Amino acid sequence: MEKKMKSIGFIGVGKMATAIISGLDKDKFNIFISGRDLEKTQKQATELQVLAMASHEELVEKSDFVVLSVKPQVLAKITDEILPALTADKTIISIAAGYTLSDLAHLMTLENMPILRVMPNINAKIQRSTSAIVRNEFVSDDNYQFAKEIFENIGSVHEVAEKDFSAFTAIAGSSPAFIYIFIDALARAGVFHGLSKEQATAIVADTVAASAEMVIQSGENPWTLVDQVSSPGGTTVAGVVSLEQNRFVGTVIDSITATIEKEKALK
Ligand SMILES: NC(=O)c1ccc[n+]([C@@H]2O[C@H](COP(=O)([O-])OP(=O)(O)OC[C@H]3O[C@@H](n4cnc5c(N)ncnc54)[C@H](OP(=O)(O)O)[C@@H]3O)[C@@H](O)[C@H]2O)c1
């Protein structure tokens, strides 16, 4: 017997939903979207090769998995609208920053509602998101695997305990901004020493990407790799010592702590 194609519905079709949908094989899943303005949603549906639904309620009725991809500020309004169509055979996936599984369960009002929380990052745009995933006890193993597969289509997925979501959000959600600053700083140093900004940026971006790949492929502790490029009395170790004297590591850690503290303060 042919296996029924799973249906995934996205409520809110902004940057993140568009990135996720673009990474999904339209022959493998039935995909529905619903937005704020039907005319706009229909246009987006044509571009993304999916189906537009006239209401969030209708989308929920038709979907096995419902991805809540609106801004956190409108989440409560959306869940109110979908409550009549919610049944425990559906699985909810929230990507909203700051909403815990227990906050979400509270909004859904159904005691045994299967809910997953996923935190993708901006690199979803190039199908290279680093996403965190966590589920509540009502999500079956099969549905958990399926949800993981959705996000594996747009990058890597890390199983992260919910208590660590804030730290994850800082080191994977916000960190692209910090890494852009580092890339720009290295490139600017290249300009200071005579390279064009365009060429220096391309050189640094390639080097940062390859160095990250080296950490992944070698499985080495990053400090071991630092030691490998630092010849005794050489040029690289002079730069490493200068970074340390200027509190580089401590400054990076402080910025992650500030990010986590800001998230807590916003709640
Ligand atoms: N962007 C990221 O890097 C990132 C990373 C991790 C998590 N997230 C989470 O992903 C979620 C979406 O973020 P985003 O960056 O994709 O935001 P976004 O681009 O602003 O998308 C939100 C979408 O929701 C739509 N919307 C607003 N009110 C609605 C309603 N009542 N019904 C249906 N749709 C409605 C908006 O439509 P209009 O434009 O027509 O108002 C917009 O298309 C957020 O919860 C955010 O925390 C984002």
What does this structure look like?
The relative contact order is 0.08. β5, α5 and β6 form a beta-alpha-beta unit. α7 (165-192) crosses α8 and α7 (165-192) packs across α11 (248-266). The protein has helices at residues 15-23, 38-48, 56-62, 72-82, 101-108, 141-152, 165-192, 197-218, 222-229, 235-245, 248-266, and strands spanning 7-11, 30-34, 51-52, 65-68, 91-94, 115-119, 129-135, 155-159. The protein folds into two domains: 7-160, NAD(P)-binding Rossmann-like Domain (Rossmann fold, 3-Layer(aba) Sandwich), CATH 3.40.50; 167-266, ProC C-terminal domain-like (ProC C-terminal domain-like fold). By secondary structure, the chain is of the alpha/beta class. The longest helix is centred in the last third of the chain and has 28 residues, at 165-192. The protein binds NADP nicotinamide-adenine-dinucleotide phosphate (NAP). The site of NADP nicotinamide-adenine-dinucleotide phosphate has 25 residues, from α1 and α4.
The gist of it:
The chain has 267 residues and is of the alpha/beta class. The protein has helices at residues 15-23, 38-48, 56-62, 72-82, 101-108, 141-152, 165-192, 197-218, 222-229, 235-245, 248-266, and strands at 7-11, 30-34, 51-52, 65-68, 91-94, 115-119, 129-135, 155-159.
